[in-house]
Design the sequence.
């Protein structure tokens, strides 16, 4: 076997006339975090549902630690946990009862089930709500309970479909910490998200989906580099020195700088990384004081829009 | 851990059946419904129509209580379908499907958990009847046999309810379909009046309706009279209903399970 924790090969899924997945390939090595980014309707949820045995593909297949999700769904289910895009809980039970129910279905003893549920209630900040019916929960509370349910038996592979949608900032940060901790424990995490910041922060690898296909895959930095060069951005303490500074920048980078939105800024695209020290030295020699000098890669937003084509998003 | 054995499957089913009892505990309204509805029917029919149907309401109570018992328990089976439908149309079903549990467990759980309702309903109707003045004219053994007969029939009929529960795409359609099946089945029978008093077409239906046989059998077992014939007919009908609707339910259910 390939030794991959997640491997999707040529997944195809159609719903009537809609092709949700058009030959999707994904892979994640054990213990890594893979973020799947894509606009609405690009097939993220469909892919996750196939990889977590909830949906059969029309073509291709996926393997979880070498087990085919189509033919060995039972084994796959032993290894995975899933938090879907919409909470999968029983609204007519309390939060605590939901956790105990799922723990019991995972065949934990009654005592262990209650203890695990108790720990997780605290961990996910649900102590006060634990005794209330889930029907009365807010969206964020449901989401947290759903996540807690995933942790009752630590999975080897965790699927999170837009896990931070609907979470408040504190909940979001708590989730990020959880994912990082799980990754540290060797859990493979596949998460879908609309937030590039989230992918940037958590993922070892990012796959960008568009219309049911992967249009780019790689580490956050690789992806950013793929899209375009760096930008050097210079701000001056004294706006009057701009002309002099512009000449220096042009001399160092070979590009005439454009003006930043602010009055005292200069921007140069596509500069080599080593220009910064050189620039600083020359500016210093000329007695020009920069208030800010940054060399940065394009943001994932820029990468995303470049690759999926349409910054306004499709209707 | 990775192979599904009948023992494991049974445990999963029982765990999910216990969930039904938790539901019941959390919705006192449902529990109240379950207890109050048969009482209401009993009071309504005995005091409203009792005088008209029989010379004395006490006589009518003797006649109608076995029928109300049959109707109440059969109507209680709609809960199994409603439960499955609620599971299928909310996210919890995805959870079940992504867990390493027997695929049968949610179905087994719904049917098993529901059986508790039938037993409860049986007890409530009998107790309330006795309170109103109903008197058993046979032996305790016959009472047990009557209850067993009702429970067997309920277990068969609940598969009609589960089939509707699996097939219905919306709660409205579920309610409509359940009513469409359950009302003619229970009211169009000898539950409230002897079939001989009914007008032509209704009489034909009521005499064909196995619920009449069930009501007659329970009546005979509680009050005396020939019970064997109607009881046998009720049992055969139960067997047939089970043989037809259980496989249909399982097939429809597996289809939705697979997606
Ligand atoms: N059960 C279904 N029946 C019909 N069409 C479906 C079904 N599920 C998904 N689709 C279609 O498949 C495509 C992909 O949907 P999917 O839910 O996978 O997208 P997504 O990337 O998760 O979107 P979002 O960001 O909005 O969650 C969409 O065009 C959607 O309309
Ligand atoms: Mg989605």
Sequence:
């Amino acid at each position: 076997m390939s030794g991959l924790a997640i491997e999707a090969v040529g997944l195809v899924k159609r719903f009537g006339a809609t092709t949700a997945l058009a030959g999707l390939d994904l892979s994640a090595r054990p213990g890594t975090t893979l973020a799947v980014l894509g606009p609405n309707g690009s097939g993220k949820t469909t892919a996750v549902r196939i990889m977590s045995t909830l949906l059969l593909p029309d073509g291709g297949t996926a393997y979880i630690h070498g087990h085919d999700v189509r033919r060995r769904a039972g084994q796959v289910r032993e290894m995975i946990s899933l938090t879907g895009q919409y909470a999968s809980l029983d609204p007519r039970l309390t939060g605590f009862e939901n956790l105990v129910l799922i723990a019991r279905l995972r065949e934990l003893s009654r005592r262990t089930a209650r203890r695990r549920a108790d720990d997780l209630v605290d961990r996910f900040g649900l102590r006060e709500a634990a005794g209330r019916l889930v029907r009365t929960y807010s969206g964020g509370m449901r989401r947290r309970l759903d996540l807690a349910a995933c942790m009752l038996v630590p999975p080897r592979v965790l699927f999170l479909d837009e896990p931070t949608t609907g979470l408040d900032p504190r909940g979001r940060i708590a989730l990020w910490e959880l994912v990082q901790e799980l990754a540290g424990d060797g859990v493979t995490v596949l998460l879908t998200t609309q937030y590039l910041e989230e992918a940037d922060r958590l993922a070892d690898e990012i796959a960008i989906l568009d219309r049911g296909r992967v249009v780019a895959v790689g580490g956050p930095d690789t992806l950013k580099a793929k899209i375009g060069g760096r930008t050097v951005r210079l701000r001056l303490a004294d706006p009057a020195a701009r002309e002099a500074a512009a000449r220096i920048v042009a001399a160092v980078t070979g590009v005439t700088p454009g003006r930043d939105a602010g009055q005292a800024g200069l921007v140069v695209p596509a500069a080599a990384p080593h220009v910064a020290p050189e620039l600083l030295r020359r500016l210093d020699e000329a007695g020009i004081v920069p208030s800010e000098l940054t060399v940065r890669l394009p943001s994932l937003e820029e990468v995303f829009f470049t690759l999926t084509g349409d910054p306004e998003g499709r209707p | 851990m990775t192979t599904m054995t009948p023992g494991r499957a049974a445990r999963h089913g029982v765990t999910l059946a216990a969930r039904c009892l938790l539901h019941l505990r959390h919705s006192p309204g449902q529990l109240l419904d379950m207890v109050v509805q048969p009482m209401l029917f009993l009071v309504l029919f005995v005091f409203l129509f009792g005088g008209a149907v029989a010379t004395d309401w006490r006589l009518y109570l003797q006649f109608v209580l076995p029928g109300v018992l049959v109707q109440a328990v059969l109507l209680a089976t709609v809960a199994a379908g409603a439960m499955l439908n609620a599971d299928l149309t909310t996210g919890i079903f995805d959870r079940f499907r992504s867990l390493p549990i027997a695929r049968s467990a949610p179905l087994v759980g719904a049917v098993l958990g529901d059986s508790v309702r039938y037993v409860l309903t049986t007890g409530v109707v009998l107790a309330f009847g006795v309170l109103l003045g109903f008197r058993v004219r046979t032996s305790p053994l016959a009472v047990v046999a009557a209850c067993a007969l009702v429970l067997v029939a309920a277990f068969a009929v609940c598969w009609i309810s589960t089939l509707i529960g699996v097939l219905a795409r919306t709660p409205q359609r579920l309610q409509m379909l359940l009513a469409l099946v359950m009302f003619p089945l229970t009211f169009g029978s000898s539950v409230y009046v002897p079939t001989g008093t009914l007008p032509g077409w209704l009489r034909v239906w009521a005499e064909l309706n196995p619920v009449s046989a069930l009501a007659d059998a329970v009546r005979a077992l509680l009050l005396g009279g020939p019970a064997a014939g109607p009881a046998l007919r009720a049992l055969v009908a139960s067997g047939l209903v089970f043989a037809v609707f259980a496989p249909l339910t399982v097939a429809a259910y597996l289809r939705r399970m697979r997606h």
